[in-house]
Amino acid sequence: RYRDRVHSIALHYLKGDVAGAQDATQEVFVRFFQSAQRFREDARLSSYLYRAVANACIDELRRRRRFVFVGDIPEALHPIAAAAPSGGDPTLQRAVHALSPKLRMVVLMRYYDELSYDEIGAALGVSAGTVASRLSRAHEALARQLGRDIRDGEEESI
């Protein structure tokens, strides 16, 4: 029931890395099934899973930082370049991917999964006010980035 949502968040969070998103998705559900007996009946499963996918993606990004890649990898051999999410405005996608992980996660949960501030807050373990603050900062960053991209595009077409 939640697999596609969890995978979608992981895919966006990991900037289109299909293999990483699949690993994160699998990790979320393995963790859930291992700890299912401890799951509180009064908690929402969706909130638990959103928090779990956020943690799994953060863990994946931490693991990646341990490696140093030397040289340029040809685009044909680079799985992320070929597997970037399709659909929507590519300029907007690039701008969202450029956000910090904390800001990117609230944007994805709010606009891609259409969660309320309270649902996002529960999933991330923060207050609804913190969610609102992060969204506000994300909106400002996106406006700056998109404004710069639009101006650059106009200069190129002149």
What is the topological layout?
Elements: H1 3-13, H2 18-34, H3 45-65, H4 79-82, H5 90-97, H6 101-112, H7 117-124, H8 128-157
Helix pairs in contact: 1-2, 1-3, 2-3, 3-7, 5-8, 6-8, 7-8
Provide an overview of this structure.
The chain is mainly alpha-helical and 158 residues long. 70% of the residues lie in helices and 0% in strands. It contains eight helices and no strands. The chain has helices spanning 3-13, 18-34, 45-65, 79-82, 90-97, 101-112, 117-124, 128-157. Helix 2 (18-34) crosses helix 3. It is globular and about 50 Å long. Residues 68-86 and 154-158 have low confidence and may be disordered.
Describe the structure using short key phrases.
single chain; 158 residues; mainly alpha; 8 helices; 70% helix
